[in-house]
Amino acid sequence: MRSLNNTEKIKFYVPESTDRIIRSDAEQFEIYKPNGEQVNLNRFLSLLIVGYYAEYKQEINEATETIRELIGTHLHINKQREELTRKLVEHVIFPETHKRKGIRSIPMSLKPTYDTDRIITEISQSIVGTDDYISQYLRRMLMSYCSKPVYERERIIFRDNVEFLEEACGTQREISFTTTINPQIVRHVIPYKLVYGTEERFNYLLGQEYNAHLKKNVAISFRLCRINRPAFSLSSGVLEDSVRKYLDLTGKNGPQYAMNEEIETCVRLSEKGEQSFRMIYFGRPIVSRKEKEKDGSMLYYFYSSTDQLFRYFLRFNPGEAEILYPEKLRIKLRKFYESALSLYKKHNRNSTADSKTEGNMKVK
Q1: Cβ atoms of residues 9 and 109 within 8 Å
Q2: Which candidate, 233, 245, 159, places its Cα nearest to that of 206?
Q3: Share of the chain above pLDDT 90, in %
Q4: 167: alpha, beta or left, given left = phi > 0 and alpha = psi -120 to 50?
Q5: H or E element: which one contains 152?
């Protein structure tokens, strides 16, 4: 193993699929540079290493010990023992490990920071006397990270906040924090649960917050990646049973849409609308019951957030879905389509100009 200068960039290669997931996660978890436009890949990799190193090391140690015990029990011939070890490592623990500059391998680099310096030093010391390299170790760790579901990967990147929020949810002691959406506003929340959606994607903090406009406590939801510097608040409060009820409904129906009322929604779906309902999975509300009408269309009933239903059915093609009630949601969708139609009519100049151009070309 060659010596490592922790002030230099560490260059390594990862499979194309790993590179794609890493860059996608950095964008989805909103790890941006100060300009808010470009992904900060080095910061993301640093958060990944800090959040995952201890867990990854434990996973490897446990797997290695299991293999060692298995081989020692059943094999006593060194050659066979080494061959089995190699196969298990290559096909079970580190599948698809690519050689440096291998086929479809993408270059990456990590500039050690104050937060990662200790870990990089520990890794370099752990592989002394072996034919391993720190670049190979990092590649394997990133590949292992990418094998996990999205919600677990997000919890790894924001591990410090996760540990604090889970403790706070356990005590339901009031906390304060800002968000990346409104960094000037301090939120005061009684935390309830840290959950992830039915699609097993992003994590959300559910809690109770006082709404000054409504003059009462309400259920509220925050994306994990947008919570900044959470800390225990100096003030205190109690989670109300009425709010707890809606927080449970929020977690069940879609944690990204906080519920503060339980209203039945009825939607008529055509045959094509039912096909779209089966195909459009992300954000899909839970059906409470269904009824078939004489014309063959189906009535779907929901007790989900009206905001969730509004955003979900906007993705359907015209004629596939019609909100029958509540009237408030029906009017909201109608106004949206009327506004969109008005906008397209207003900006119809380009198509008119194109038609004139085509006409002039035909005359010529």
Answers
A1: yes
A2: 245
A3: 67
A4: alpha
A5: helix 150-157
